[in-house]
């Protein structure tokens, strides 16, 4: 066996983007060091309630809730580094088909059960059997305990990418007594620093778990998450003191600072874009999808709606993320309304096409949908914009009951290859039209074989180039900068680069 490369060290803590100003860096605000209140409850405004606390039923944006109560076998820090989680060490076989893990001693579940290899096996078997994590764990062939605290996972093919997958929801370990409980979606039982106290519509509360294995590092007594569907309301809640912090969009940064709030922001592996259902006749033709792509003025949208805080892009990953395709960095050549009209005519639609776009309830996606509506109209593409409630939007995307949606898309979690599976592969969770392109499956296998990002980059970039040339079923508009605002005296919140949250380090001044 060879030791898996662990990209972590104590120095990472100092380099992390923490809430010390706009984008990190600088001095920690007065009153934060040594003067925080360990009995304080952190109040955080969120867009909506969790879909489910059962990892098999969770949605892409649920980690903000799941990361509070659960831990995974491998931990990914908010800045994207891998380090020990419930597993303190691991090693791959030379061909990356067998992964051995050693589990952490002295870990207790919220129901009093103790972590051991049998519990880890039970969770992995349950998560790979069905539900939202089954696709991510599809190469797992066998899971077995090789000792009381030792775990072995055998894969059907080289699967170095699974290091990232096991750092996400698919690596969560649920209490063995709760894993088969039909009420797990509302009564989670994990090993996290906090346990669920109450779950109500619009409000979720957590309290510190006294038997947490690393309790001395937890600097707050609890968390209260309050749901507001739109960003203006969430920002007003921070300004008024109703909550301690919330995510905002880049266009609200000036308002937040003008009200004396601390703003933290940084790159994130998400993008704003359109998901097209390629099973619909009007979108099945690749020339139509290319026409939509060329009809969008991404720079104008980024400047007018996001104040430059959402980088124009025609690909899923922004510069700075290893799957980014350098040759596609400049979006200027891709905005061409006349070319869009020509492509529509070639596809047999000289008079244009019409279809519906649905979006979630918050203001960002309403504004983005309307901006796209206006731009597409210039190219002869007439769309009707229709809002959906938060849960309706999640269900529409999962069921494929839509023509087109405008939404935030998570491309990097748990691993960029999973985005390829979900959106570009037949049977993918978010590929209702069954989009496929020759050669993608082979490139995907090559990309997933290694755990080394440098080895994987060429294959992954080739996939994105192929999809782009074929008329993408997902059309990126701009790569999101994660932005949040916090009231004075709240520190320690790190930018979740890949959607991983750590609430244990938050400090609230006395």
UniProtKB/TrEMBL annotation:
Residues 1-23 form the signal peptide. This is Peptide/nickel transport system substrate-binding protein. One of its GO terms (biological process) is peptide transport. GO terms for molecular function: peptide transmembrane transporter activity. Residues 82-430 form the Solute-binding protein family domain. InterPro entries: Peptide/Ni-bd (IPR030678), SBP_5 (IPR039424), SBP_5_dom (IPR000914). One of its GO terms (cellular component) is ATP-binding cassette (ABC) transporter complex. The keyword S-adenosyl-L-methionine does not apply. Pfam families: SBP_bac_5. The lineage of its organism: Bacteria, Bacillati, Actinomycetota, Actinomycetes, Pseudonocardiales. It comes from Pseudonocardia thermophila. PANTHER family: PERIPLASMIC BINDING COMPONENT OF ABC TRANSPORTER.
